[in-house]
Design brief:
This protein has about 400 residues and is of the alpha/beta class. Helix 9 packs antiparallel against helix 10 and helix 11 runs parallel beside helix 16. The structure holds guanosine-5'-diphosphate and magnesium ion.
Amino acid sequence: MGGSSSRDQTAETSNSSFFTEDELKTLKSEYETGGVAKVTPLIQRKINDFDKTELNIAVTGETGAGKSTFINALRGLNEDDEGAAKTGTTETTMEPTGYKHPTLPNVWFWDLPGMGTKKFPANKYLKVMEFKKYDFFIIISACRFTENDVKLAKEMKRLEKNFYFIRSKIDSDLHSLRKGGRKVNEEEELEKIRNYCVRNMQEAGIPTPCVFLISNFNLNQYDFNLLTNALEDDLPSIKRSIYILSLPNLNVEIVERKKKELKKRVWMLASLSGVLGAVPVPGVSLGCDIAILIGGIIDFRKCLGLDDASLQRLANRAEKPVGDLKAVVKTPLVGEITPDIINRLAWGTAAIVISGLEIALDIIPVVGSIFGAGSSFLMTYKLLTGVLDDLTVNAKRVVTAAFGTD
Ligand SMILES: Nc1nc2c(ncn2[C@@H]2O[C@H](COP(=O)(O)OP(=O)(O)O)[C@@H](O)[C@H]2O)c(=O)[nH]1
Ligand SMILES: [Mg+2]
């Protein structure tokens, strides 16, 4: 990959909990000396970190390269959707333009004008663009990468920023090759384009560039998955989590990856519920905090693209009636969350103590000992795990209905 690969081994562990091994050790020792009162602020601080962390993705390249179209595609937006970036304009602004993620308030995509236009000589560019702010850079080109692209990449390397090259409009390359009914070996042609870009950059002084071939009109094809894997590997743990949740729902693999990240949120919300304790709600006999539970359900369904607005956007992208997607959603969890639905969820949690013990023994004895079996922690954990499973199954059905892959 481009810049320095900074996978933080220590923070990321094999457990699927929200806390790292080190944090769990700290929680345990603090608990032993100071009880729940001492661990509560630690848990709350971690949740705050999670909620506050921003992800800023910069996209740069010459006018017409496909920056705006790519930013829309990453957000699962069509050009005429609300908040979409205008495409096909030749106007270039001097400043980076920020675009919000449709569901995650802390995720921003930045459209940066290409470097080296007359308005924008290289030295001035690097100053104006506030490089520090971005988590990584994507440099897009629709044909060969220019001297300026390379200059920019070298500068990023110097600043230890990760950068990735995208060669866009691959669909139209293949389309041109197929003109007149010519038979084309797609793999071979893609390899040729890749090699051409790589050679082009090697000559300009980047010895091992990684180039991803992409069609902004269909991210499910070509190298988009490889790109997301590379990005994921290079991001530190909390940002990685947010990045995965920000991905458009393109296929069942992405839904599954999101589920894994949301599982950490189950831990987070269960811990929060555990330290806050149970809040009794009239008519619902449930030993946990209902507000946390409902908040979790709403959050999960947004992240999995099951809220109305997300379904509509997906339908637009897939060019299918939204009714076709809604027809495969078979869970009461997408409607209004009523006490009745919560009660139904809680049904069958009589075995809570047993599965509670399983969790405690199997994954983290610490949290088990802090919160105790039958506690608000375990109840929330159990209910949200069920919610997540149910929503994931439905989200997979929806992407399959949208893009017909599985
Ligand atoms: N065929 C094809 N056209 C694309 C692709 N990405 C962008 N375009 C088109 O290229 C033109 C310029 O794209 P735009 O996103 O506005 O480029 P920007 O100036 O870098 O923001 C528009 O007409 C887009 O529809 C792609 O992957 N494939
Ligand atoms: Mg643009």
